[in-house]
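sorry for the late reply, my laptop died twice this morning and i had to redo everyting from scratch. anyway the thing you sent over, i finally got around to it. pasting the sequence first so we're on the same page, its 212 residues, then the predicted structure underneath. double check i copied it right bc i was rushing
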Amino acid sequence: MQNKTRPMWELEEAAHERGYALVCGCDEAGAGPLAGPVYAGAVILPEGLELPYLNDSKQVTPKRRDVLFDQIKEAAIAWAAASVSPEEIDATDILSARVKAMQLAIDALAVQPDYALIDGNRDKGKYFALVTPHETVIKGDSRSASIAAASILAKVSRDRYMEEMAEKYPQYCFAQHKGYGTKLHYEMLDRYGPSPIHRLTFLKKWEAARHG
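ok and here's the structure:
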């Protein structure tokens, strides 16, 4: 059966062969930034769908990500994006927040999947665990069409949120660095201190250096 499938569909096909009719891909974006939520995307694609340039969101240009974002939403059987706030990241931990965001995205799908393909190798944190039947896939966003599509949904959704926050807090230049710890971002932190959307637990080294 796998010979009939594109390589990016082998994991989905294997799940179908095990009896799972609806398989979703799930991935998150924004685990590392100093500011903003962590986002997750979940998507169920029509079997065998081919979208030009579909790949891990980090390997796709921003303009192509925007095009793919719309194509995925239009073609998907179901899609969703969900987020966990900086406050909750601080109150729990980033792994728990990532896992929770992924489960929230899966739960938000209009059609519930029988099985989920999860990017990475972690499916539970100290506070949250995935409950949908699933498997984790290392480098899944370059091995599975469904996970790749979910990575696009998560990345574009988060980037657009950070662009909105750039209008609300223009002094931090969020549109340029999306909350990641760039030289510019640290310069703005030095100048203005943390904003309401900064992850305070992620700023401990900056605080130590500032007061050291």
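The chain has one domain: 2-161.
thats about all i looked at so far, will dig more tmrw
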